[in-house]
Amino acid sequence: MTALDRLGEEKYLLLTTFRKDGRAVATPVWVVRDGNALGVWTAADAGKVKRIRNIDAVTVAPCDFRGNQNADPVPGHASIIDGEATAHLRDLLKRKYGVAGRLTLWGSRLRRGSDGTVGIRIVLDE
């Protein structure tokens, strides 16, 4: 099983992004496998989005819902995806996370609107 396969099956990943000064910021996120990449969904104004726009290098590692890392991190590169790709990512999240995923996405759409969230595509450095 490849790292991409293994990480795509996890319920939570610890996504670590980097500030301009090099300091790491880790956040637990839901994850889906999307072809040859991993997909993550977040608020458009989240700090991780700004950090990825500045520095696309990231690491990802399996974790629990509190962000307690369970394995060694894997390096990769992330990019913010467009609206159509984000809509596809939302569908994948609904499929993987079931009722909890649907309710979370619905609540987010009520609070932020459809443009209030973005998808992040992560390609692993393997």
UniProtKB/TrEMBL annotation:
InterPro entries: F420H2_bilvrd_red/Heme_oxyg, PPOX_F420-dep_Rv2061_put, Split_barrel_FMN-bd. The lineage of its organism: Bacteria, Bacillati, Actinomycetota, Actinomycetes, Micromonosporales. It comes from the Bacteria. It comes from Micromonospora pattaloongensis. This is Uncharacterized protein. One of its GO terms (molecular function) is oxidoreductase activity, acting on the CH-CH group of donors. GO terms for cellular component: cytosol. Keywords: Oxidoreductase. The keyword Oxidoreductase applies. Transmembrane segments: none annotated.
